[in-house]
Amino acid sequence: MMNASRKKLYFNMVLILATGTLLKEDTSGFVHAAEAGDEPRNDANYTKTPISAASKLCESCNCIRDKGVFDCTSKQIGATSFPLEDWQSLNTNGLDVKLVFLVSTGLKEITRFPPMNVTWLDLSHNEIATIQTGCFTNLTLLQVLDISHNRLKSESLNPDVFAGHYSTNEYMPLSKLRVLRLGANDLHSLNPDLFEHLPALEELSLELNPFKVIDQQSEIAIASIERLVSLDLSYMELEDIPKYLFHTPRGLRYLNLTGNLLQEVPAALSYATALAWLSLDENPISSIVVGTCKSPSQMAGLSMVDLEHKQTHLRCPDEAGNNPSNDGALLMGLLIGVLLAIPLTAAIWCVYKRGCFGLFGSGTPAAYSRAFYSRTTLNEEF
């Protein structure tokens, strides 16, 4: 009995020692693997090495390397635009972005962009209500900026949003920006200095904003754009246009006033002297004063509409007050005189060369005979 119990005890001790040895070897292997920098691989929980930030952006959006296009249209990217490091990774990975489309992405806030060669930035059809100060400062080559169809309010759109880098010639300009689209937001007024950083601005769109009236602040802002060529003020519920709105931008050529509440043709148009295209469609204009011509006499009493229907081509009046239409008789007389003078001059020349047929000679028989004969030339003698 005693021997059996002792044998059983020995057996349990050997089993415990063997188990401890195996556990030690397994643990030491784990430790050595960790010290070597390799995690123990678990195929069920193993994940691949994370891809680069640039790859992430181009996986969720469309990147066209040869055209420099980054297109995230209709991709839900979150409430805030990409962080700086993600944008910078596009350049570091060989994609020189020039055209950026973040259309219908659900953006609510735009943060500052890093230095990029972007020339076209489309942020339309989002829910943007906030734009960080100096958001576009580093986009020094930006030419077209579309922030239409968002939720921008007058208070959130201040001049510093468009501030550029310091310049000795101009006040922190975005010197390349030519086109700015702010249509379909919630703007009721404009900061008077809103465009002070945009010296090259040529095209401004404010359509579908509930202005109702262009107040003094907005008038100052628009009138300050010296190079303005195209202005869209359609569907803004405007009842009138300030008289001197177009006094400063004398190069304005395209003006869209469609879909407002204008009851007469705005007097402000008299200052838009370079205007080439104008739309007053969908306005409740009840009457238009039809101007008629007093002069010239051929057009007296005719309206401009009549002249257009007759395809009449007008010309500027002569500075000296001369009327070319009265010069017909004089020109005809000059023409007849020239036509008569040519044969008369030729006849006189012939008579002179022939010695006047003796009419103005000495009257002697010899002189009379010589009038009918001419001296033989040297060639005829041979």
From TrEMBL:
Pfam family, one: LRR_8
InterPro entries in UniProt: Leu-rich_rpt, Leu-rich_rpt_typical-subtyp, LRR_dom_sf, LRR_TM_domain-containing
Domain of life (superkingdom): Eukaryota
Gene Ontology CC, one term: plasma membrane
Cleavable signal peptide: 1-29
Listed transmembrane segments: 329-352
Sorted UniProt keywords: Leucine-rich repeat, Membrane, Repeat, Signal, Transmembrane, Transmembrane helix
Protein name: Leucine rich immune protein (Coil-less)
Organism, scientific name: Anopheles merus
Phylogenetic lineage: Eukaryota, Metazoa, Ecdysozoa, Arthropoda, Hexapoda
